[in-house]
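Q: How do we represent a protein-ligand complex in a form that can be generated token by token?
A: Start from the inputs.
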Amino acid sequence: HAKEQGRSGFRFFEMAMNANVHQQLKLQQDLRRALDRNEFTLHYQPKLVSPNGPVVGVEALLRWNKPGEGLVPPDQFLPVAERTGLIIPIGNWVIDEACRQMREWRDAGHGVWAVSVNVSTAQLNHMGLVDTLRDALVRHAIEPGHLTVEVTESTAMRDAETSLAILNQVAALGVGISIDDFGTGYSSLLYLKQLPADELKIDRGFVTELARGNDDEAIVSAIIALGKTLGMKIVAEGVETVEQQQLLTRLGCNALQGFLLGSPVSAAELPATLPATLPASA
Ligand code: C2E
Ligand code: MG
Ligand code: MG
Ligand code: MG
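Then emit the structure tokens for the protein with magnesium ion bound:
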């Protein structure tokens, strides 16, 4: 009896696995087609000193405008893109598109907002990243200092020697480097000290728990002190309440990002959603 059950259990597992493999293959094909058909789009979320400005920059966030389904968020397709290598052409598109958009905003007389793009582990370990960044900057005539790459703490840590070498090349190009989701990885202080990073983003997890009277305020203070000691600007992500905003500002964050200050919106919508202040000088 037990044997039979074990068998049907296995068959069920096998079928579920086949369905899963099938789904992934389908997604892989769809993503390839999405690139050809130009179905990806970037939304932009501001980083602000305070709710009334100034604007420190904007972060580009990838969306897939899937026909018949609307905007698909990145966590639903990036893992497959990452595993299949499709993240390289998709990521190259993101970098070029962000620079093209900066140029368009400028030519239209909008602010000179610096743009950050997210770069995943496979992209950072890929030899072409530095060339892709340089090509996009030249093609759209953007100063390197107006572009920043965000790498998560875990991405920067993986294969630390290679990551450091590439990040040094990115920094030599003049492109900014931001450590994303900080506090969720396990960076050694020695490694962190060597990173040519300009900005450190405190993970949303700590921000969410703030003002609830637990240890997170002490942790956030410590992260801010550490980042500042290493010469980095501190950005808090996921700021949703006035209470969090006030506390983070008091603790010394240089910029804030989150639904309270502005949700990610399309490039066309962005100018109208930003506070009517001059952009912060870079
Ligand atoms: P991330 O870089 O840490 O981006 C922040 C995420 O938090 C975004 O989700 C943003 O929409 C969301 N968010 C912003 N403010 C708030 C808030 O106040 N509350 C809450 N609950 N969420 C907030 P999104 O756009 O779904 O992106 C998820 C992740 O996907 C990003 O995390 C980033 O790691 C990755 N990603 C996004 N775009 C790209 C891209 O172009 N290339 C690569 N390689 N990764 C990307
Ligand atoms: Mg990010
Ligand atoms: Mg983040
Ligand atoms: Mg995050």
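The first strand starts at residue 40 and ends at 48. Residues 45, 61-62, 73-75, 78, 91, 94, 117-120, 150, 180-181, 237-240, 258-259, 264 surround C2E (ligand 1) (CB under 6 Å).
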